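Hi team, as promised in this morning's meeting, here are the two structures we talked about. I've kept the exact order from the run log so nobody has to guess. The first one is mostly here for context; it's the second one we should focus on when we meet again. Sequence first, then the predicted structure tokens.
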Amino acid sequence: MSHLPDLHQQYLQACQSLSQPENPFIAYMLQEADKHDKIRWTKGITLKIAGNNRLVPVQRVTDEDLQALVAVLQNTVFVTGLDLRYNVLTDDGAKHMAKFLQENSTLRYLNLMFNGIGTSGAELIARALQWNETLLHLRMTGNKIGNKGGMYFASMLQINSVLEKLDLGDCDLGTQSLIAIATVLTPHKSVKAINLDRPLLHSQAEETTVHIALMLKTNSSLVELHLRKHEMKKFGVERLCEALYENCSLRYLDLSCNKITRDDVKILGDLLKRNQTLQILDLNSNRIEDDGAVYLSEALALCNRTLQALAVASNNISSKGLIALSDSMKTNTELSYIYIWGNNFDEATCVAFSELIQSGRLKPHCTDVEPYEVDGHVHLAEVSHGLRKHYYWTPSWAKAEDKDANASLALGAVSEY
């Protein structure tokens, strides 16, 4: 096996030709990549140059640094992923990235999460992706591209038929761009997962949820949908559930951090009695209370046999609702993951979940609580497990692909690249 090109040396040469100083952080990460020839030949590698790395000294990547880096990667066939999250890239850096995406034919995964890319940068990247035929997964999370930037991505999706996973969470999308994206996705065949978390909405009429629901009635490829912080209430939940009676593809629905109450969850409970597709339902940080938990438990105990993971943390549920959920797991053998921390535990609740864990019905790595005993009384402690605990960042002591903290990966709704 011949030796692959030395990325570090190429980077030094690129900096020299551009008359700019090298970034020691990039240089170090390229040196580390040079050590893995065998992996590069067989699988390709993802270069992880994340600006929030706490294990090595970091000098965050600038626009000028990116210009030198993409010059090195332009003809490097074994680099199939690039992680540039939490750096200081701006619209000028987006120019270099757009040029790279137009010319590169090997990159499958690109993470630009929480940089400083704005509307004009979003336009450049979106236009480059209209003709890119290889990128499968793009994270733009946290870049304030705004409503206009979202419109550029909607236009891109009209042409691009390769992209499978797009994350536009925390990007300040507006009503117009959300409706445009939903409209474009209606006949779309390639996008399997989309994140539209935390848009900036200035209306209580839930127009965007109506259009997303209309999209779900027709779309047959979308598997994963994140609608966190959409201020969704009963009207929006009704529209989504109406659509999901007809949808046969969606497996992961994230409605966390909305305004869903106990009465709204009754509608979801009725859906679960008939839906045979959903595998993951995230309702964290709503207000479903005891009655809502009981509605869900009735559907899970009597009818539903497809849901595998349910998250109801921080929902003001007390003993009645939590015990109902634990009882439903005794008859429902498909529900394997349940997350309940942040609710109101009494000793009866603690005993119920302790018995589920001790009997083996609920595996310790499939929930976010752990029982312990003090003076003969059972209590529950929090455990750092969840559906996607490492969505924003990964602690230095953990692995990004830890399936206990990121159970949605273990369930395989949409495989991470």
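And here is the second protein, the one for discussion:
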Amino acid sequence: LLGQILDHWFESEPLKATLATDAVIGAMASPHTAGSGYVLLHHVMGELEGRRGAWGYVAGGMGALSQAIAHAATARGAHIFAEKAVCHVLLGRDGEAQGVVLQDGTEVRSKLVLSNASPQITFLELIPQEQLPKDFVQHIRQVDTRSPVTKINVAVDRLPNFLAAPNTRNGQPLPHHQCSIHLNCEGIQLLHQAFTEATHGHPSSRPMIELCIPSALDPGLAPLGCHVVSLFTQYTPSVLAGGRSWDEQARNAYADTVFDCIEDYAPGFKASVIGRDILTPTDLERIFGLPGGNIFHGAMSLDQLYFARPAPSYSGYRSPVPGLYLCGSGAHPGGGVMGAAGRNAAQVAIKDFRHL
């Protein structure tokens, strides 16, 4: 359990709770949930410029990372077709992947197909079910994809001013503005209570909030004096109590709760808001193809990791369909902006390609 690990190393409850957020981030789980300690490890296992466990902002926003990968690929002869949805994977007589068919009917032939989509989309929507083993299909259907995350992007006309560390008169970003700011994390029990409310279909009344201000480090993201604030919040159930869906009223009511909480820490925040974009679990699924809104394409629980990701006997990136590989967050070792699944899948695909 995460709580036992943190109790062993730390005494301060706010510090333990702040660290605990990385153990439940993106997970419909409490710090008291068995296996939550692994998710904390997952978030600090990498390194940035030689610093183990360090994180960083991408200059130009997260989209700049995608663009950098795209430019590297096109420089080596790759062709990228944006806004061209794949309808299904083309299969040969022996059930092997031979390319993809786009929604406009265009066929793209290939000896190998790598899917960065979730296992659910890849195997339940793009492949005829009769081409897959029944137990495999059943396992993919049963993957836990619950997500507690509602992401709120905010535009503000001034830098948030926190009571704990007031701004200077010139309004320039201070060190704490340039890192991750955790709110409603004074104690692990607060996180557990927020989780418990969501399990009953109610958005947390005092949600866990991870706030960052990327424009404090990258001024080009906002006009002079203004800032963009990214709020990673939980817990919000995909389906609300009574089977209600996330309509506009529910979205705004939850966002108002989040903003009221921030206001307690940084008075004047609500008055500084110019615009906000609210993405509930259902929005994250609809817009980005994340099953259940899960940023990891499936829970990072111990029963869905290592040799069992995405399914037992299929953790090596190959799938039941010869020539079709899974290279996204639903593959080993799971989600996160680290590229491990993609790199590993590419190595396997290259090895197989040499024998075609």
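Starting points for discussion:
The first strand starts at residue 47 and ends at 48.
The chain is about 30% helix and 15% strand.
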